[in-house]
Amino acid sequence: MTDVERIAVLRDSHYAETESKLMKDRHIKDMAAEIAMDFGEDIAVFYSKSTHADGHPNFEFMSSALNEYHNRDGKIQSHIGGPANAILAILRDK
């Protein structure tokens, strides 16, 4: 079993539900838009600094995204990776 498979086993359905709610939150949408605008054509630089090779957010990005979400008065309670995963999902959909 790979590390990704082990992590997948540990993820409960609540994680996906929370991330889905976060993707609709205006603060998360704004954060994703700001990242997209800041990096523009160089979005690969953002991914290289903020994610692991498998595309999952690294600890630094998870921590900073969660802190920024709370600083913006985000109200959805989340696991540490919730805001980062929601932001990544929004960026991938663009």
If you had to describe this structure to a student in words, what would you say it looks like?
The termini are far apart. The chain has helices at 3-10, 13-23, 26-39, 43-50, 59-71, 82-93. With 94 residues, the chain is mostly helical. α3 (26-39) packs across α4 (43-50) and α3 (26-39) packs across α6 (82-93). It has one domain. It contains six helices and no strands. The protein is globular.
Topology pattern, helix = H, strand = E: HHHHHH
**Helical content (DSSP H or I, runs of 4+):** over 70%
Beta-strand residue fraction: under 5%
From the alpha carbons, calculate the radius of gyration and give it in angstroms: 13 Å
Summarize the structure.
The chain is mainly alpha-helical and 94 residues long. The protein has six helices and no strands.
Ordered list of secondary-structure elements with their pairings:
Layout: H1 3-10, H2 13-23, H3 26-39, H4 43-50, H5 59-71, H6 82-93
List keywords for this structure.
single chain, 94 residues, mainly alpha, 6 helices, 70% helix
